[in-house]
């Protein structure tokens, strides 16, 4: 009996067994075929898939190429233009990274790293693509475009907030991101012009933050109060307080002049609603629920706003 026990013990702990079932083969590396999407599609088909024109894609690539190119001599390193296209496919499809990888000939983990690198590089270009008019001539041009809508003078922009849904960030402060509708979101403040371009954006406040709270703690308010945009103003809804540089609707207008003011105010500010709709339809990734980490969500919002 002792002899049999010793044999059983040795068979359980003997590492020199030749049994093939204990041998685990390393998964063979597969190199997917990469397609030259820049030349494959015509201009219209390219825009439908990537939400930007070929000219814009090439311009973005030149501007961020030094930040995103891989410092390697390997032949299969992903080119900067392919990184930009994969990122915009993610923005434009609102899909999972695995799907983007299958369409780009890349592994899911590679797509994940590329999207984060490219998104952060694009977001850093914000001062070049998103700014309030720096001088009176440009401000008058913006105001003229607004005036053509409903004859409201000297409007520099329409301000409002929109919620971008996210996954629960977890942690002790997760409930701060739950908005009044019970979902988790980032409350994003946007100032847009009459041509549906975003001039200013704040994308760092949780969904529970009120619109006026975000504005009161923004750099934009400090610039307005310092008279940097003297004789021009923003248009906002009733969520904001009436100020010399921020005009809101009049409550219970009795005279015809006040009614005309409200009507002109509503029509002019409607450009902001169309901007939000266009932005979220163009980039479904922000029109649905963003399934990225909180640190990356803010960069994605800013990067899509610049496009």
From TrEMBL:
It holds the Pfam family DDE_Tnp_4. Keywords: Hydrolase, Metal-binding, Nuclease, Nucleus. The keyword Isomerase does not apply. Its main location: nucleus. It is found in: Nucleus. InterPro entries: HARBI1-like, HARBI1_dom. Coiled coil: none annotated. Its cofactor is a divalent metal cation. Belongs to the HARBI1 family. This is DDE Tnp4 domain-containing protein.
């Amino acid at each position: 009996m002792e002899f049999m026990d010793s044999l059983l013990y040795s068979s359980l702990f003997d590492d020199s067994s030749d049994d093939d079932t204990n041998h685990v083969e390393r998964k063979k590396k597969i190199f997917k075929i990469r397609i030259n999407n820049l030349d494959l599609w015509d201009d219209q088909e390219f825009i439908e898939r990537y939400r930007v024109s070929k000219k814009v894609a090439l311009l973005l690539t030149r501007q961020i190429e030094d930040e995103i190119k891989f410092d390697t001599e390997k032949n299969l390193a992903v080119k900067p233009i392919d990184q930009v296209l994969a990122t915009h496919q993610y923005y434009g499809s609102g899909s999972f990274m695995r799907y983007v990888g299958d369409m780009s000939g890349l592994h899911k983990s590679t797509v994940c790293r590329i999207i984060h690198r490219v998104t952060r590089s694009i977001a850093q270009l914000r001062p070049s693509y998103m700014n309030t008019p720096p001088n009176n001539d440009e401000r008058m041009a913006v105001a003229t475009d607004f005036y053509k809508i409903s004859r409201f003078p000297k409007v520099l922009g329409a301000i409002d907030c929109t919620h971008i849904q996210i996954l629960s960030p977890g942690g002790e402060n997760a409930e701060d991101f739950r908005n009044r509708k019970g979902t988790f979101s980032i409350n994003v403040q946007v100032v847009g012009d009459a041509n549906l371009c975003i001039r200013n954006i704040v994308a760092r406040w949780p969904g529970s933050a009120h619109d006026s709270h975000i504005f009161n703690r923004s750099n934009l308010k400090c610039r307005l109060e310092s008279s940097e945009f003297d004789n021009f103003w923003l248009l906002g809804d009733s969520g904001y307080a009436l100020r010399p540089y921020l005009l809101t609707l009049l409550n219970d207008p009795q005279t015809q002049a006040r009614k005309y003011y409200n009507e002109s105010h509503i029509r002019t500010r409607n450009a902001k609603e169309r901007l939000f709709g266009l932005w979220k339809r163009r980039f479904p990734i922000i029109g649905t629920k963003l399934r990225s980490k909180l640190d990356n969500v803010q960069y994605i919002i800013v990067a899509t706003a610049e496009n």
